[in-house]
UniProtKB/TrEMBL annotation:
Gene3D superfamilies in alphabetical order: MetI-like
Topology relative to the membrane: Multi-pass membrane protein
Stretches that traverse the bilayer: 56-83, 104-127, 213-234, 241-262, 282-303, 310-331, 434-454, 460-482
SUPFAM superfamilies, per database record: MetI-like
Keyword field: Cell membrane, Membrane, Transmembrane, Transmembrane helix, Transport
Keyword Plastid: no
Database matches in PANTHER family: ABC TRANSPORT SYSTEM PERMEASE PROTEIN P69, PHOSPHONATES TRANSPORT SYSTEM PERMEASE PROTEIN
Highest taxon of the lineage: Bacteria
Protein name per UniProt: ABC transporter permease
Cellular compartments per GO CC: plasma membrane
Organism listed in the record: Rubellimicrobium rubrum
Subcellular localization, as worded in the UniProt entry: Cell membrane
Upper classification of the organism: Bacteria, Pseudomonadati, Pseudomonadota, Alphaproteobacteria, Rhodobacterales
Length: 499
């Protein structure tokens, strides 16, 4: 049981101490043969991006946008339909289960039933996003003014009460959040290429495997530009057009023919544990489950927690170190512009992409995953804190100090609560991403999931994913409890950091 109130300093000390305790259990060695040589080759590629070498990237770019828009549209529609009923335990648990499984894991499973096609990519994004949208929309309903709903007759059903009394008040927040989810969807869509779908991630993995760092640099520049300019081309009044165009593009994407009843077999046979499928009884099921738990589930979850906890503390350090870089009164006008640009680039590149790049330099260990998680999430929090620090600094007295003195004595103390709340909210997200790092060869839970899928032991893969979902749900509940006890602003945090 947690106490009703917790000091913010004690929460920081708890997480820092836990990360230090886990350090001896983390594989953080450099396994690359010559990391500095790899850095040099990549630096040359960054300085000389080769756009001529990526003829196929145009179609991959179109598909990245199409998967993202279609997946977010479908997930948002489903989440909106579920939001009025989110108080129901079955609906809430269903949404928790959907959002606890990473998009890449959904894609791996769906490929076994639907093949590598448009529907697989759209559903891989839409399923977890439906659970996320339902949760956020439901909490936006709670935060909306209750007075219009109170004047409706008691017998009005929840859906009508939502449509006529809650939805009009929520529309501005819903529109802002939905556009933000499109940005998240672009990241999710890009990384689907790492499991075979023809998005930008597939192109990036291909050119990296060929050692063509100039082409890789060009792909990353195109991808970051896509994210950075999203607010210009994804305008609210153009959303229906983008959804329609995405549907047309994805309809033209050929899918491999699946056998008759493949989906039904997947749902009723493939994912059912082998002893139960064969009618062998509970004893045989437990004998099948125990080696899986001790040999894969527990080691995979433990490694995932180790990576996530160390990455969480490093995320906080990165956020503290970078948040002042975007404030003109601290870094100067040119320095703040450079800081903004650096943080936008780092927060735009998904953790999986960053980890993949670091793996080419550092070799296979937990270190690339920890660095990727810390840099990406630290850049997100640093950007948000810097934006608030800039607004806070504008209200200070005219003779306030500047530079590091301003940051240390004026801004940092005021933003400490917000900083801690943002880190706690990113905790669940970091854990999900740490699990999926196993698909790149890092020894987290995703490593065992990938192996089970490769061996077509989908029943084992489902058990592993269920265990990941339980762990994620538990961390989410603990994070919510901690945020309540330190007085975190739930609505603002979810609006800003939920991907």
């Amino acid at each position: 049981m947690l106490p009703e109130r917790l000091s913010r300093g004690s929460v920081v000390a708890l997480f820092a101490g836990l990360a230090l305790l886990l350090l001896p259990f983390a594989d953080l060695h450099v396994a690359g043969h010559d990391p500095w040589a790899a850095v040099g080759r990549m630096a040359q590629g960054v300085l000389r991006p080769d756009f001529a070498a990526i003829e196929q990237v145009g179609w991959s770019l179109v598909l990245t946008v199409a998967f993202a828009v279609a997946g977010v549209a479908l997930g948002g529609t489903a989440g909106l339909a579920l939001a009025p009923f989110y108080g129901n335990r079955i609906v809430r648990l269903t949404c928790v289960a959907l959002r606890s499984v990473h998009e890449l894991f959904w894609a791996l499973l769906l490929m076994q039933a639907l093949g590598i096609g448009a529907l697989t990519g759209v559903l891989a994004i839409a399923l977890p996003y439906a659970g996320i949208f339902a949760k956020v929309f439901a909490e936006q309903m709670e935060d909306a003014d209750p007075r219009p709903s109170a004047v409706l007759p008691p017998g009005v059903d929840p859906l009508s009460r939502f449509l006529f009394a809650r939805a009009p008040l929520m529309l501005p927040a819903m529109r802002t959040y939905s556009l933000y989810r499109v940005e998240c969807g672009l990241r999710s869509s890009a990384v689907l290429g790492f499991v075979g779908l023809p998005t930008l991630g597939y192109q990036l993995e291909t050119v990296f495997s060929e050692g063509d760092y100039g082409a890789a640099s060009a792909i990353l520049i195109i991808y970051v530009s896509l994210i950075a300019t999203m607010r210009l081309w994804m305008r609210p009044h153009l959303v229906p057009l983008w959804v329609l165009l995405s549907g047309v593009v994805l309809t033209s994407l050929s899918s491999p023919p699946m056998g008759q009843g493949a989906l039904l077999r997947f749902l009723t046979v493939d994912i059912v544990p082998a002893p139960l499928r064969n009618g062998e009884g509970l004893g045989a099921f437990l004998a099948w489950l125990w080696p899986l738990l001790t040999g894969q589930v527990i080691p995979g979850l433990a490694a995932t927690l180790v990576v996530a906890q160390i990455a969480l503390v490093l995320t906080g350090l990165v956020a503290v170190a970078t948040s002042g870089l975007v404030v003109p009164s601290i870094a100067g006008r040119l320095g703040s512009l450079a800081g903004h640009l650096a943080l936008v680039i780092l927060r735009s590149i998904p953790e999986v992409m960053l980890a993949f790049v670091f793996l080419q330099i550092l070799g296979p260990s937990m270190l690339p995953a920890v660095l990727a998680l810390a840099i990406h999430n630290g850049a997100i929090i640093g950007h948000l804190l810097g934006r608030e620090a800039e607004a806070t600094g504008a209200t200070l007295r005219r003779d306030a100090p500047r530079g590091l003195t301003l940051w240390a004595w004026e801004l940092a103390p005021r933003l400490f609560g917000r900083f801690l709340a943002l880190c706690l909210y990113r905790w669940e997200i970091i854990l999900r991403e740490a699990a999926v790092m196993g698909l790149l060869g890092v020894a987290t839970l995703g490593f065992f999931v990938d192996g089970a899928v490769a061996e077509l032991r989908l029943d084992r893969a489902v058990v592993l994913l269920v265990s990941a979902g339980v762990l994620t749900a538990g961390v989410d509940a603990l994070s919510r409890a901690l945020r309540r006890r330190i007085g975190a602003d739930r609505a603002r945090i979810q609006r800003d950091t939920s991907c």
